[in-house]
Amino acid sequence: MKKNTALILLFTMAFFASCSSTKTIKKNNSISETPFVWESASVYFLLTDRFNNGDKSNDLNFNRNKTAGKLRGFEGGDILGISKKIDEGYFDKLGINAIWFTPIVEQIHDAVDEGTGLSYGFHGYWARDWTALDPNFGTKKDLAALVQKAHAHGIRIILDGVINHTGPVTNDDTIWPSDWVRTGPQCDYKSFETTTVCTLVKNLPDVKTESNQEVTLPPFLIEKWKKEGRYEKEVTSLDAFFKRTGYPRTPKNYIIKWLTDYIAEYGIDGYRADTVKHTNESVWSDFKTQCNYAFATWKKNNPTKVLDNNSFYTIAEVYNYNISAGKYFDFGDKKVNYYENGFNNMINFEFKWDAQKNYEFIFSKYSKILNGELKGYSVLNYLSSHDDGGPFDAARTKNKETATKLLLSPGLAQVYYGDESARSLIVEGTEGDATLRSMMNWDDITTNSDTQKALLHWQKLGQFRKNHPAIGAGVHQEISAQPYTFSRTYSKGNYTDKVVVGLDLAIGKKELSVGTVFSEGTKLKDDYSGKEATVTNGKITIDSPFDIVLLEK
Prior knowledge:
Elements: H1 2-29, E1 42-46, H2 48-51, H3 79-88, H4 90-94, E2 98-101, E3 105-107, E4 112-113, E5 118-119, E6 127-133, H5 140-152, E7 156-161, E8 181-182, H6 193-196, E9 206-207, H7 219-227, H8 231-245, H9 251-266, E10 270-273, H10 282-301, E11 313-316, E12 328-330, E13 335-337, E14 345-348, H11 351-354, H12 359-370, E15 378-381, H13 399-407, E16 412-416, H14 442-447, H15 449-467, H16 470-473, E17 475-480, E18 484-492, E19 495-503, E20 508-513, E21 523-526, E22 532-534, E23 539-544, E24 549-552
Helix pairs in contact: 1-15, 3-5, 9-10, 13-15
């Protein structure tokens, strides 16, 4: 027992020393010179409540003490927990340059049972008050500190925004007024109208986002704000917004105002928009307009904190959108181009199917589309997520393949929390999507040598991807089918980036062609092994105990 413990400790020390030194080398050599390019971002997606508990004192609020179904109650994760992992350099080592976390606005106070067990709003998608943060997640002071810490590490922050619906109705959570929401019919998805003018499920009031009728604030919200001593402040802010924009006081415009306030106040860098296809597309054009205004306002008010000249970034969750469909999503009776209605990016639900094919099929397909029909836009690829019950590797037996295909594919990469550490997606006793939402497996990362080995692979690929925008945003070109070798090149303005990658190679000594990417006599480094080589007759030779080569100048 003592011998095994000592071996694990030795491996752990070597593991973290390797990560630390890699990071230092990267920082000194290239990170400071590498621009942040949204089209090649590595986005870490986490459930705020399930990632890390940084403040145990906020674990219970609003008498949320009913016995929930397994993994359907609040588990303690919070904003401070995310910040602590930023401080520790966890995301830096993983090559992450954007973090998206589930909504943090105040949730309904009670719990409901939708047929999968009693559930609280731990996931953040059951809003009660868009202007307040839920105390289980933390405070606005915590949020401000998180954004500041993330920016100091070169990491962008993406909030999750819901405009389509409120939270369910309970004895503690009264329904919003009838001119704000509808309670039926339920969506049947047979047409555009029966996907948008309807409720997703029973007891999930649908915001009348298509309505042009002006509405007043809900009485319960007025009462709440008065009790909290901020009614006058909130009303004054609303008056200023509607005066500036000239927008009517419709339900969608109130929520747009409330969500974009977080941009103007804290300088968040992007929004992932939830349930986009369940609203009229014009909602998101207006949303993006106000996001841009709020971001410009924050930059103007905080000139010393501005990271770069990138615009505000928006990602659409249009469930079942596939990259093969190009710019359009087909409702059957209507096709909608969400890229032209406020979005830079759409989540790609097709990637998990494409990932079952070989590397060249994936890479060439995605490069062609992203540098063709979708040029100037992008997609967010994923292989597991919080609400997709059919992940690429449910049993977590293909962790290395998952990392390689996800992190080396063109487009943005979504690393769902625990992908890198093979967090289990099969949890006994859970119902529905709860099995996808367990607590992050920090103990495995600390003590399990297999987990540490898997994580190191994700870190090496992640840092290479972060340092080379060509991977996600560049043009793919196969150099050789056997051994499989390809190049990626990216150029914008005065910046040029080019790399050569070899996969499924021989262990030990291997010879690779670099094509015309690197000229004769160029000194190259294999970022995976740390070995160096010089281009001779258009080829390089690397002797390493790995089957991957990541070549950079």
